[in-house]
Amino acid sequence: MSEEGHNLDVRAQRESDATILYLSGEIDLRTSPQLRGTFLELIDEKPNRIILDLSGVSYVDSSGVGTIVELKRRTMRYKSEVVLVGLQTRVRSLFEITRLDKFFTITNTIDEAREA
Amino acid sequence: MSGRDVLNLNVTSDAAELPNVRDEIRAWTREHGWGDNQIADIVLAIDEALSNVIRHGYNGEAGHKIDFVARALHDPIEGEGIEVAIRDYGKQVPPDRICGRDLNDLRPGGLGVHIIRSVMASAKYSHAPGGGMQLVMRKYQQPNTDTYDRQIGKP
Asked: CA-to-CA distance for B105 and A57, rounded, in angstroms?
């Protein structure tokens, strides 16, 4: 895999009722601080719903799921929803192994995430 | 089984090295006939173990030495497998205190050891001679041992 494939790219799309973050690449100990920074900026905006499109994420480790859990915990304080979309099989497996899947709404498409 | 039976990697406590380590492990395990799901398990366990060393053994400081050896196993009973030994020279903690946390809590952190124990057949921590910690993990190429199937309860 190229060096670029190991990086994490994040693109935000703001809608009236939700902010969608399109993530692609890998979320590990190296890239999770970057993701955490993005999340902290987003939390300041207090969107009603945060949709994380993970369909482009090929690898996540425990620091990655931990960063997403931290986002969930912080947004619970102002009753925002965090919805995960398009998890690749191995990424979904990690959420299941750690039993974190029960704490999140997980959908296949962004349209479903808007309604979830 | 083919390819090099032992893989030694020069690793330091720098998170920037993790992607290359993952690539090396993927290539080496593929050479030794592992399937995609099992390769992903092994890569994840090694990544989690090295991340723990960086974060806890060396308090996030880059540049410290980590010894890494992966070895192909040819066990007459268990069959083909892999043994991974990771040794650091950092903080020592009692091995019996290295355990996963309660998974009923929604909180970050404390998941690495649980993941390692979930995806590998065995994982044993010990004090390394002369200081630091050592982790030895094993996994075998048995059928129906893919993590995903085990976790969701498929036979």
From this structure: 25
Domain ranges of chain A: 3-115
The span from the CA of B93 to the CA of B126, in Å, is: 9
Widest CA span in chain A = 40
Domain A3-115 sits in CATH at: 3.30.750.24
CATH code: domain of residue B91? 3.30.565.10
Out of A62, A67, A99, the one facing B112 most closely (by C-beta) is A62
Q: Is B44 on the interface with A (CB under 8 A)?
A: yes
In a domain, B64, yes or no: yes
Give the mean model confidence (pLDDT) for residues B129-135: 96
Examine residue B155 and state whether it is found in any structural domain, yes or no: no
How many other CB atoms are found less than 10 A from the CB of residue B6? 10
Q: Which of B111, B114, B148 sits opposite A66 (nearest CB)?
A: B111
Residues of A with CB under 8 A from a CB of B: 1, 3, 6, 26, 28-30, 59, 61-63, 65-67, 69-70, 72-73, 89-90, 93-94, 96-100, 103
Question: Which range marks the domain in which residue B32 is found?
Answer: 6-150
**What does DSSP assign to residue B102?**
P
CA A57, CA A25: separation in Å to the nearest integer?
A: 5
Q: What tens digit of pLDDT does each residue of A32-51 get? A: 999 999 999 999 999 999 99
Q: Give the count of beta carbons closer than 10 Å to the beta carbon of residue A40.
A: 12
What's the pLDDT tens digit per position in A64-75?
999 999 999 999
ipTM for the predicted complex:
0.91
Specify the pLDDT at position B154. 47
